[in-house]
Structures are given as structure tokens and as C-alpha cells.
Amino acid sequence: MNSPDWNHIRAFLATADSGSLSAAARKLGLTQPTLSRQVAALETELGLLLFERVGRSLELTQAGRELLDHSRTMGQAAEALSLSATGQAQSIDGTIRITASDMMSAYVLPEVLQQLQRRAPRLTIDVVATNDIRDLMRREADIAIRHVRPDQPDLIARLVQEASGHFYASRSYLDKRGRPERYSDLADHDFVSFGDTDRMIEYLVPMGIPVTADQFRIGSSSGLVAWELVKQGFGITPMSDDVAAKCPEVERVLQDAGPITFPIWLTTHRELHTSRRIRLVYDMLAEFFAAK
Q1: For the chain, what is the radius of gyration of the CA atoms?
Q2: Which spans in 60-146 are helix H?
């Protein structure tokens, strides 16, 4: 029997991790029929049935479970090979994937991306705008910008800024509902949530801000959508001062209140840090945030 095709093994791993062909296809950037053919081809190559359908999801057969650990070992070896090859690349061209929140991607990064284009015009930059933590170990991104320091030992993390924020609302909302002067006044106002409302409340209440779930009548897991709702007068939300400064329709609430501070961490893989192009982008991002 010939050795299985690595693309077929990769399709098997993605399907096992995702539990469905459609989710696995999205993860690998393939069409569902293509991924399905690759899984079927592996089953043919091995002479084994690897998945069985249970309702709307796929579950591993006994044979599939027995092969999964071996396949993961192959996947880790392939990822290590890719990391090593990328780390040795010394030309300032190719593609760099930067992951950041959708708000940072839309409002903060464009300024430094313009500098990068002038410095390395042959570089292709893919901005992965997501509020989830991308897995650098699996090469979903080369550089991550996050508010939480990663704990994986193979990652390099650098604190590049202690950013500040305040509460903001649109002028139209404040004209209609009044301008609060102290934290206690916020109990009479509406708020717009970014993602998990309970987490926002858990963050705000210890600050002495008397908010309840009833005040969060609208929100979105998309930061861009939630911020647009704020700009259109649906309520108050905490926001980075850098973002708010770009939006003349919003006004800072509680002018005398101190800032909300939050860290910005720049992260990459240790081996990637030896790549000339990734080092260039990493250092420019670090300088950009440090200067703000």
C-alpha cells in the first residue's frame, strides 16, 4: 500500500476536530465537495471506514479513533517543518497574516499598515479580523495582537502598550437621555454590549458602575456592529480612546472619570521571529503601539 497523501490526512484531521465536513472545509479554505473527496480518498487508500454519520454530525469509527493520534503526530511534524521553513525565509516579500480584533483591524491597524506598505511594497498583508484567539501554533496567523498574554512556551509575547479607554455615547443619545456626571448616574442609562453581556457586567460592577442585565437591551458579538449601534444612539459603552477619536459623532461620558486601562500584547512564534519579513512587521507594530 502506498503512503497516504498528506492532503487527505489533513482533511481527516480537520473533519475529526470540527465534527462536520462544512466546518472542516471552512477551516482549510476548501469547498465541501473537495474536502469530502479527500476524506473518501483516504478511506480508500487505507481500506477503512473512518467516519459514520450520527444525525447531522460525523463521528469517528473505532478505526478512525485509532488513527487519530498517529495523524496528529504527522500534523504536528508538518506544522514544525512549515514553521522552520518560514523562519529561515529572509526576503521581505510573501504573505504575513496579522490577527487582531475587528475593532483594532478597522480603526487602529490601517495607519501602521500604510507604513508597512511603504517600507515593504512587495509584502502581502492578510488581516485576520477576529475576536477569538487565533492559534499561532497552527499557523492561523503569524502575528497576533491581543489584550491577553498567551501562555504557550513556544510563543514570544511583548507588552507594547497600556492603552486607555473611557465611556462613550453618541451626541444624539446624550441630548435625548442626558449627560451623566457620576458613575451612579449610569444606572438610568442604556448600554450596548460587545459579545458576552455577563462578562461586561462582571467587569463594570467592581468599578462601582451599577449596571444590570436589563440595561443591555441590544448588542452584538461583532465589535464593529456594536460600535455602530453606539454611534447611532442606542446607548453607552466603554471604548478605546484611539477608536473614539476617529468618530466625531460620539462624545466621552463622565468627563472627570479616570481612564480604563488595558494591555496590548504582540505575539509571534519563536521560530517565526527569525524570519526577516516577520521580524520587520513585528518590530514596526511594536514601535507603532509604543509611540501611541
Answers
A1: 23
A2: 62-88, 102-107, 109-119
> Rounded to two decimals, what is the model's pTM?
0.65
Q: What is the pLDDT of residues 214-256, one digit of tens each?
A: 999 999 989 999 999 999 999 999 999 999 999 999 999 998 8
Residues with Cβ within 8 Å of 276's Cβ and at least 6 positions away in sequence, in order, are 89, 90, 91, 92
Cell of 121: 511594497
Single out the residue of 3, 89, 101, 110 nearest to residue 46, CA to CA. 3
Same domain, 233 and 275: no
For residue 1, is it within any domain? no
pLDDT in tens, 246-259: 999 999 999 888 89
Number of domains in the chain: 3
- SS3 of 243, please? helix
Q: Taking each helix axis as running N to C, give the angle between helix 62-88 and helix 6-18, from 0 to 180 degrees, rounded to the nearest 10.
A: 110
